[in-house]
Amino acid sequence: MPTQPIQRLNHLLDELGQVTDEPGRLTRTFLSPAMGRANQLVGRWMKEAGLKVRVDSVGNLIGRLEANVGARLVHARGRRQATPLQGMTLLLGSHLDTVRDAGRFDGPLGVLLPIVALAELKRRGVTLPFAVEVLGFSEEEGVRFASAYLGSEGYTGRLSPATLKLRDADGISVGEALKKFNGGRFLLPKQAQRTSNLIGYVEVHIEQGPVLEQRGLAVGVVSAIAGQSRFKLTWTGKAGHAGTTPMALRRDALAAAAEFAVGVEALARRTRGLVATIGVLQVSPGAANVIPGSVTHTLDVRHADDRLRRRALMAIGRLATQIAGRRGVARAWQRTQENGATPCSRALTARLERSVKAVQGKSLSLVSGAGHDGVVMSALTPIAMLFVGCRDGLSHHPDEYTSPKDLGVALDVMVDFLQRLAADYTG
Ligand code: GLV
Ligand code: MN
Ligand code: MN
User: Fold this and answer.
1) DSSP letters spanning 111-170
2) What number does the ligand 1 atom closest to the CA of 208 have?
3) How far apart are CA 201 and CA 134, in angstroms?
4) Which top CATH class is 3-226+341-425?
5) Where are the chain's structural domains?
6) Where are the alpha helices (DSSP H) in 199-345?
7) Could you identify the atom of ligand 1 that is nearest to the CA of residue 369?
């Protein structure tokens, strides 16, 4: 068992990276058997670091380290008095689910790094005057139900009845999956924490882009997370014989979807900052000699400016109407996700930045194009994010990689951040 914190972190990332639902590649999705094994494994590591562990009704893994009572008290005018942090909790975390054929870092880093940082503080005999909760969210990627953030929505009491109705590829709804997970009974969870008891939520995540690497920096802070809309679209034409139906008489649903995909790509290419992706597509009935009768696909659209994202969505809607009309094909939309751009807290980010400067010499502020659990957590408490560089900016890919050196900087920043936060409040 590695004893140096950085070796330990690497070792944990490697071990968790083996926990998968699909042999030969890393895939862990919401409430799957691999997610259950991941919770057991990470829960064990949390316990070893001195945390008390539970799994909530949406499958989030939660490790809690209580405040050190002695450290919570300071001498004020000769009396021992509670500091402003008495009864307060700092939240640290990220997600434990993955995309299909994922890398080892996206999500797990933000759960495992805090565990190793807290173990390191314990080894140094440092105690904190506030409680810390390390959160391993059960769902952030939106792989199983095409809607992201189910874990943090559960934790913050924001899981909606509409979300419970979404169905996976096997026709199982979110509500049915959660009912089974909870042994037959599931009630929408309430907010897990009172806002007034929270210091904030800090998430460590790989950058998933090339900027830090290009600037020769290990870490940076996030100023805001781009807004995001996701949809499920269905095009319905008419299936028929591929050999006998003349081209002019066809209502080919796949041709309509393909024209739409290329049109959306062109729009995103000419709109600065806009990104749009069709990542899943199903053709029915799905035979080489049958004209596609219907096609269902996802659409993910993001921009850091909500106004420009909404304007793009209107243009995309008009494009779909025009294609459907011209081709005699019907189309239906279901919005599966909608999140506005999320600014990080200036005050909490300034504290994180102070530690980045102390460890790295300088800091850099970045906008995140990727979605993060912080989007949902921001409804509960101030958020801040630490980005760690990754090789070639590559993510959502098995070759995702962050060097031990950069991980070491991130770990030092977290340890420094916790120590300074404790010192700020205990005087
Ligand atoms: C999560 O990784 C997302 O941005 O889709
Ligand atoms: Mn992530
Ligand atoms: Mn991801």
Assistant:
1) HHHHHHHHHHHHHTT---SSEEEEEEES--S-TTTS---HHHHHHTT---HHHHT-B-TT
2) 2
3) 10
4) alpha beta
5) 3-226+341-425, 228-339
6) 211-215, 253-270, 306-327
7) 4
Three-state SS at 182: coil
* CATH architecture of the domain formed by 228-339: 2-Layer Sandwich (3.30)
Share of the chain above pLDDT 90, in %: 93
| pLDDT band (50, 70, 90) for residue 424 | confident
pLDDT digits (tens, 9 = 90+) for 397-415: 999 999 999 999 999 999 9
Q: What whole-number percentage of the chain has pLDDT above 70?
A: 95
Positive or negative CA dihedral for 29, 31, 35, 37?
A: negative
| Per-residue pLDDT reduced to its tens digit, 299-340 | 999 999 999 999 999 999 999 999 999 999 999 999 999 999
Place of tokens 């008390």: 52
Tell me which of 98, 396, 397 to substitute to probe ligand 1's pocket, judged by most ligand atoms within 8 Å of the beta carbon: 396
Give me the half-sphere count of Cα atoms (radius 13 Å) on the Cβ side of residue 330. Answer: 5
* CA 426 / ligand 2 centre spacing (Å): 34
- The minimum-distance atom of ligand 1 relative to the CA of 302 is 4
Tokens of 378: 């921001």
* Nearest-angstrom CA–CA distance, 311 and 269: 15
Q: What is the pLDDT of residues 2-29, one digit of tens each?
A: 669 999 999 999 999 999 999 999 999 9
Is the CB of residue 237 less than 8 Å from the CB of residue 329?
A: yes
Residue 206 alpha carbon to ligand 3 centre in Å: 10
At 103, is the secondary structure helix, strand, or coil?
Answer: coil
What's the rounded Cα separation, in Å, for the pair 132 and 352?
16
DSSP code of 318?
A: H
CA–CA distance, 107 with 136 (Å, rounded to integer): 8
Ligand 2 centroid to residue 372 C-alpha, Å = 6
Task: Name the one residue in this structure whose structure tokens are 């999140």.
Answer: 339
Tell me the two tokens of residue 409.
């900087």
Question: How much is the pTM?
Answer: 0.89
Residue 290's alpha-carbon distances to 245, 250, 287, in angstroms, are 10, 11, 5
Q: Which residues fall within 8 angstroms of residue 319, CB to CB, at 6 or more apart?
A: 260, 263, 264, 267
Q: How does pLDDT run across 210-268, given as a tens digit for each residue? A: 999 999 999 999 999 999 999 999 999 999 999 999 999 999 999 999 999 999 999 99
Query: What residues does ligand 1 touch, defined as CB less than 6 Å away?
Result: 141, 370-371
